[in-house]
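Anyone else keep sequences and structure tokens together like this?

Example one:
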Amino acid sequence: MRPINFLLFIAIAFITLAMPTTLLAATQEYKDCIIGAIKGADDNVTVGDLREKCNRLDQSDDSLVNERLKQDKRNTLEPFTMLSHESNYLLLANYNSKGYQNSLDDEFDDRRLDDTEAQFQVSLKVPLATNLFNRDIDLYGAYTVRSFWQVYNADESSPFRETNHEPELWLQAYPNWRVFGLNNAVVRLGINHQSNGRSDPVSRSWNRVFVDFIFAKDNFALSFKPWIRISESGDDDDNPDITDFLGHYELKGLYKSRSGHQFSLMSRNNLESGFERGSIEAGWSFPLGRWPYLRGYVQYFRGYGESLLDYNQKANSIGLGIMLK
């Protein structure tokens, strides 16, 4: 997809962010929100701020996304608030049938890597400002870290093979557009940096401007996230061909069954690359007995970009572990 198309997405996002939202009736949920917000608000928070924050509680939409938004809003005005962003999980064992190859020549590094390792991801976000421009627009910051740990590789002293860092900053609006029966509950417009924090010759990093359109209906959620890479000079670019493998968009779907099982599917760069350099990731999380905040988790990944270090190496991996709800 050409850059001009992505600029169109950004233009649509700006229009969306400028649109006013519809105020809702004072339902019981709204009243509960106001009461909870008052209890946790600082002295400099106005009644108008509280009202605007709770006005988003649309009782006509009980979708997965709306339930998540309600949880976030109840905690946004609490002091020192940190919220979950992407999935938080630990894969106790993740096996890659393609094997992990060193990106360096043997003269630099001759470590032998195991095909089975542990992986974990921690992802948190913080509300930085609310009701910007006197609109229902919030500013968020987030940080996600994902580590690939050769914990079973005792011969090499169980090293961390790779760690990816991802700070983000974005504006978030709630347009509630209806598209093909889905509610466009959230639009995010922001900037993203991703790096493995290492020096040459294994340094990997890139910066992106992104738009994320999040849709929902009942127990189904869909995210379409296109981006434009911010170009770097040839001397500073550690991975000039990274978009050949990670593309310019990501599509995610999530479904939650009545029994509490959640199924997710991610597709990246498949159509754009003619299914030659894309990737898919499928996830299944399920309840673990009566533990409400801890879930079993199975993740399958096939394609390119499992980690930044090996963005141009194909992986075919499956892992089992736990996920924090």
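And example two:
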Amino acid sequence: MKIGIIESKDFSAIALSELSKIAEVQLWNGKDLDHFIADKDCLFIRLSIEWNNAVLSKAKALKYLCSPTTGLNHIDLNYCESNEIQVISLKGETSFLNTIRATPEHTLGLIIALLRNYAHAFIQKAEDWNRDAFKGDEIYGNTIGIIGLGRVGAILADYLHQMGAFIRFYDPNVTHDIYPQSDSIQDLIDKSQIIVLCSSYDLATGSILSHEHLDAMQNKYFVNTARAELYDETYLVQLASKHHFKGLAIDVIQNEQGNRQHLQALLDNIHNSNLIVTPHIAGATHQSMPKTELYIAQKLTQLI
């Protein structure tokens, strides 16, 4: 059996050791992907490549595709199913994922950064020392609406609750004994000053935030560390360019493996608005990534 590691930089040494016990492991050097994957029975991937029909069709021997992620929109799942390629991921691994706190921590950080104007308040010149120019808002006493109270949303809600925020949530698949539930996304937006998108993305469901939902966020804070496919990204960029949001923080974009034209359109406005963009780093910590890679390696080992 041959296993290929596509993005090998900082890949878990323990996971590599475990994999080497069951197969020949090769690390991709970044050149001639088609040739590298042609004879691999298993591939470990991250997010730099879109694993669509055109790419996967070159992996003639592929039986297992391992992605230490919960979101799978970078993989053509229909192709995998049709070609009997088993996708091994973190999706549904609730008990293990409760020990992974990188994404809720990053989301909390983005909320604080927006409220306190960190995008501009981290000064670089002495003449920028002006505390009155950077007055912000507090989490304490603010109403924060969370769309999607799954693992990330629930952990984040507990963090914010401990900091004195009033929490509301929208999630038709969840009930909660402490936090009040909105029966619609519109109701949640109307009753919240800060809206956080933590919902998982389902290709069948697609977008969940309409233009009207985004319109209703005027002069509110909006944070997304989930997926950009959950709304019309073009429309979001248009609103951001008009300073529609009081603050906007995103960690995800659509088609991040592509030309990123929407990203550049956002960044063109970054100097004159309360806008923070991070390059999909919510789950990327020195603690979380090795743990998830080892977990996926162990799942693979149990299947073979």
